[in-house]
């Protein structure tokens, strides 16, 4: 783009991105031109806070060389950032080249994003980068990370490169999506615009429009690496939204994009991945006959070939969707490790989210709560609405298992946008959470109403809806509506048969027992208990034990009932599933056995071990930040433990904690 026409077009683009930022629609633009473009951009932004940065050829190979110019006189604001981000940013600003390692790159991007959005709270912020072709790679990647996540902030990023700039040294690779002289030209600019527009639309609650933009950008990219990157984003977005139509459109684009078939060495999505994407679409449409074999085949082949990170994220989900928990856990752990080593670090939040899902579906409620709170703490302020929403949905389900109605309500309110934006998995987790809460409180009619809404709505085939089918059966039977239980039982029986997992077969037998006549029910319950592997999904196993124990007690077989009720109560207490533990203990007492309850001594006996540690430190005068550092937790997790502990102890403030006689507090205070 040269001459007066090119200059006018570039100025129009710059003015547009600054005008949108004023309205709260952050964005970035990369143009070619002389230094006059930057001067004009500054004049467009007279009402904004303006930061000016210039790349220099002499420092282009030094990591984070340009970062001090961006942070500049706002260094004092670093202390307000989350601790890991602040520490990584300080290391990056250290003149020692070894100050920041590869593992810090993602955190520096997060820190830069937090800093820019914080500065934009009082008035719009415009960051002008001149001679952007000479930005060092580390700073350019941090800017790219921030640019893709500023859709809801009043921030505009303007990057200007010289039209006659020489190509960068071959040893230095620029991050995808940023111009570098004439290296990739219009194709790169097309991809940049598509990715940034999609990010804005996704954060504004239009995931389907975001997907359409990405697919259109991939078709027009004319470059295998760029098309692959855009299609990877499209797969992730459609997967998060459980959007069957978007997945099918992505698969068709993969098959039709000739560059991907001709250049499989790009390391990104290839035409052959269309089969995997179509398998995901089949799962979300409820076509298990087509989906399960294809997903299993893809997972079996995954170990032999290095898959693109976007595909690997969906593979973790798929493993759990077909009940292969061991594969899901292994894939999630490997993905997190690769991201931390610097490979596709931008997907670390997605990878951590998949680890949380792995913990939850395997009924490690305590571990899932901790990891979800930490992951949510990490994505706060990054604009990752879909990630924060999914994690919040998982936390809502965990709170429901605990019987914490207030927390379920608060979490559900915080992601009310999921229903209007069509985010089906988030909607599914929240609806399943409400149903589980009502079922645990002994309100089967209310639970059934929620579950019918889930089974008959657009989220009927997402993972939480499938996992809630046994709840549907139990709620309908307990509400006196076995006619509404039978379809849910049939759906879960088909699911169990297709995936071939022993735990699923055991739960299907439990559903059959709930609907069976007396003696046939007893044999089905007994078979369900025996069929369930003791190391797989203990919450589901304990619920089978509870139902069997209840069935035996009601038939005066109290001696047989006790062992099942005892086993159920022990598991529920270990998982902090309070209403379920109380129900099991109540049934056990009805058999004539005095049900012992855990007692660690006084009021603190009602706390989990983690809550007790946090409370002791808080009572000794430690702040949330100090407690987090001492126990290697996030501040979000510390706050959550205090929120849970206060009502158990009958207090509402830290000052009241200090008046309680808690074991170990005096020793803790003396050590601090």
UniProtKB/TrEMBL annotation:
Keywords for the protein's UniProt record, in alphabetical order: DNA-binding, Transcription, Transcription regulation
Protein name: LuxR C-terminal-related transcriptional regulator
Organism: Actinomadura fibrosa
Location of the HTH luxR-type domain: 600-664
Pfam families from the UniProt entry: AAA_16 (PF13191), GerE (PF00196)
Xref: PROSITE patterns: HTH_LUXR_2
Keyword Glycoprotein in annotation: no
Highest rank taxon of the organism: Bacteria
Gene3D superfamilies listed in its UniProt record: Winged helix-like DNA-binding domain superfamily/Winged helix DNA-binding domain (1.10.10.10)
CDD domains registered for this protein in UniProt: LuxR_C_like
């Amino acid at each position: 783009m040269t001459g007066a026409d090119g200059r006018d077009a570039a100025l129009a683009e710059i003015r547009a991105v600054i005008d949108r930022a004023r309205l709260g629609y952050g964005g970035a633009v990369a143009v070619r031109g002389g230094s006059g473009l930057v001067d004009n951009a500054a004049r467009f932004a007279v009402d904004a806070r303006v930061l000016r940065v210039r790349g220099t050829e002499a420092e282009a190979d030094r990591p984070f060389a340009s970062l001090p110019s961006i942070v500049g006189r706002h260094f004092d604001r670093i202390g307000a950032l989350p601790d890991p981000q602040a520490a990584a940013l300080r290391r990056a600003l250290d003149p020692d080249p070894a100050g920041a390692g590869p593992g810090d790159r993602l955190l520096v991007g997060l820190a830069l994003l937090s800093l820019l959005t914080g500065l934009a709270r009082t008035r719009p912020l415009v960051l002008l980068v001149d001679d952007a072709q000479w930005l060092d790679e580390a700073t350019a990647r941090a800017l790219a990370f921030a640019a893709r996540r500023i859709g809801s902030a009043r921030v505009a990023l303007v990057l200007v490169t010289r039209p006659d700039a020489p190509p960068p040294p071959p040893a230095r690779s620029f991050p995808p999506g940023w111009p570098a002289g004439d290296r990739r030209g219009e194709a790169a600019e097309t991809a940049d615009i598509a990715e940034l527009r999609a990010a804005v639309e996704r954060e504004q609650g239009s995931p389907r429009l975001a997907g359409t933009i990405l697919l259109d950008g991939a078709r027009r990219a004319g470059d295998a690496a760029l098309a692959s990157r855009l299609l990877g984003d499209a797969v992730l977005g459609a997967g998060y939204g459980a959007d069957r139509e978007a997945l099918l459109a992505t698969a068709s684009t993969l098959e039709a994009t000739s560059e991907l078939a001709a250049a499989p060495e790009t390391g990104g999505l290839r035409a052959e991945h269309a089969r995997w994407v179509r398998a995901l679409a089949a799962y979300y449409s409820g076509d298990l006959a087509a989906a399960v074999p294809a997903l299993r085949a893809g997972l079996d082949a995954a170990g032999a070939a290095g898959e693109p990170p976007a595909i690997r994220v969906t593979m973790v989900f798929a493993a759990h969707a077909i009940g292969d928990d061991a594969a899901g856990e292994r894939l999630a752990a490997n993905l997190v490790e690769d991201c931390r080593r610097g490979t596709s670090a931008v997907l670390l939040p997605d990878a951590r989210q998949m680890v949380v899902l792995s913990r939850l579906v395997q009924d490690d409620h305590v571990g899932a709560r901790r990891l979800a709170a930490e992951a949510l703490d990490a994505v706060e302020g990054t604009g990752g609405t879909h990630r924060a929403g999914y994690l919040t949905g998982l936390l809502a389900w965990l709170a429901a298992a605990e019987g914490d109605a207030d927390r379920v309500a608060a979490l559900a309110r915080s992601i009310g946008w999921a229903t209007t934006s069509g985010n089906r998995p988030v909607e599914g987790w929240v609806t399943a959470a409400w149903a589980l809460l009502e079922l645990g409180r002994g309100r089967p009619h209310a639970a059934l109403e929620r579950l019918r809404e889930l089974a008959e709505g657009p989220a009927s085939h997402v993972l939480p809806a499938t996992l809630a089918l046994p709840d549907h059966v139990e709620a309908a039977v307990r509400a006196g509506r076995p006619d509404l239980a039978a379809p849910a039982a049939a759906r879960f029986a088909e699911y169990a048969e297709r995936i071939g997992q022993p735990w699923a077969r055991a739960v299907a037998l439990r559903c059959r027992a709930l609907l069976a006549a007396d003696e046939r029910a007893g044999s089905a319950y007994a078979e369900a208990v025996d069929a369930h592997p003791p190391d797989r999904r203990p919450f589901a196993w304990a619920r089978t034990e509870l139902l069997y124990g209840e069935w035996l007690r009601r038939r005066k077989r109290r001696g047989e009932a006790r062992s099942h009720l005892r086993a159920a109560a022990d598991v529920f207490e270990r998982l902090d599933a309070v209403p379920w533990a109380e129900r099991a203990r109540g049934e056990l007492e009805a058999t004539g056995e005095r049900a012992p309850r855990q007692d660690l001594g006084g009021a603190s006996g009602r706390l989990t071990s983690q809550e007790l540690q946090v409370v002791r430190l808080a009572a000794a005068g430690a702040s949330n930040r100090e407690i987090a550092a001492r126990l290697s937790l996030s501040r979000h997790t510390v706050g959550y433990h205090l929120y849970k502990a206060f009502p158990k102890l009958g207090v509402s403030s830290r000052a009241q904690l200090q008046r309680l006689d808690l074991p170990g507090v005096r020793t803790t205070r003396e050590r601090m």
